[in-house]
Amino acid sequence: MKIVVATHNKGKLREFKAALEPLGIETVSVGDIVAVPEPEETGTTFLENARIKAQYYMKATQLPCLADDSGLAVDSLGGEPGVYSARYAGEACDDEANNRKLVSALREVPFEKRTAHYVCELVLAYPDGREVKATGCCDGIIQDKPVGDGGFGYDSYFYVPQFQKTMAQISMEEKNAISHRGLALQNLLQQLKID
Ligand SMILES: O=c1nc[nH]c2c1ncn2[C@H]1C[C@H](O)[C@@H](COP(=O)(O)OP(=O)(O)OP(=O)(O)O)O1
Ligand SMILES: [Mg+2]
Q1: 10 CB less than 6 Å from ligand 1?
Q2: Residues 40-76 pLDDT 10s
Q3: Nearest 5°: phi and psi at 60?
Q4: Quick check: CB of 155 below 6 Å from ligand 1?
Q5: Whether CATH 3.90.1720.10 fits 2-191
Q6: 153-159 contacts: CB < 8 A, separation 24 or more?
Q7: Which residues does the record give as Mg(2+) binding sites (predicted)?
Q8: DSSP assignment of 151-188
Q9: What does 121-162 look like in DSSP terms, one character per residue?
Q10: Is the CA virtual torsion 62, 66, 72, 78 positive or negative?
């Protein structure tokens, strides 16, 4: 079995590959199949954006496509950056700029009030119109300084209480066992009756 992963994010791709390969499921990046521009993520929720990406790439490839829309919601920032996580510091920004903005927004907030959640919505869209959806959430605390060099995005600032480490300090297997994306994927596989 083969799944087309409708993302251009290398960190997400690595995680999908690591989770799915042991189950005998091969993953291919949509970028290796078609050369089309990325769709605009105009939704106001993770689910809407995941649907936009899944539908767009399914139509472009005529294959079942799995899209992931995910991000970070920080309680003391009223849920920001939320669906804007990838463009928190502006349209053409990178992880480093986003992290700098996050640390600066939380400057006055004490550690115990820096509770946050990673959220992931997955949509698997089939050419016959069927859609399978799954969601996952992971709680953490945003720390001041980056620690660890694994993961991607906000991971080196995302402290996971149960490991007493950041998301960038744990292995990919550990991350997949507890992360928003790992949990959403487990739920999706249950719905597909693959475990
Ligand atoms: O496990 C994670 N560890 C760290 N950061 C994460 C994670 N999961 C999402 N994030 C952050 C990265 C990015 O700032 C945003 C996702 O934005 P999002 O639009 O879903 O992905 P993207 O634009 O990088 O790739 P694509 O749309 O092609 O799937 O949330
Ligand atoms: Mg995106």
Answers
A1: no
A2: 999 999 999 999 999 999 999 999 999 999 999 999 9
A3: -70, -30
A4: yes
A5: no
A6: 153/11, 153/72, 153/85, 153/95, 153/98, 154/72, 154/85, 154/95, 154/98, 154/99, 154/102, 154/118, 156/99, 157/99, 157/102, 157/103, 158/72, 158/116, 158/118
A7: 40, 69
A8: S-TTGGGEEETTTTEETTTS-HHHHHHHSHHHHHHHHH
A9: EEEEE-TTS-EEEEEEEEEEEE-SS---SSS-TTGGGEEETT
A10: positive
Q: Which ligand does the CA of 7 lie closest to?
A: 1
- pTM exceeds 0.95: yes
Q: Are 18 and 172 in contact (CB under 8 A)?
A: yes
Delimit the domains of the chain by residue range: 2-191
* Cα angle for residues 27, 121, 89 (degrees, 5° grid): 100
Q: 29-42 pLDDT, tens per residue?
A: 999 999 999 999 99
Instruction: Retrieve residue 26's tokens.
Output: 């091969």
Return the residue whose CA atom lies nearest to atom 22 of ligand 1.
Answer: 9
Token representation of residue 49: 């954006």
Please give the angle made by the CA atoms of 178, 174 and 33, to the nearest 5 degrees: 85
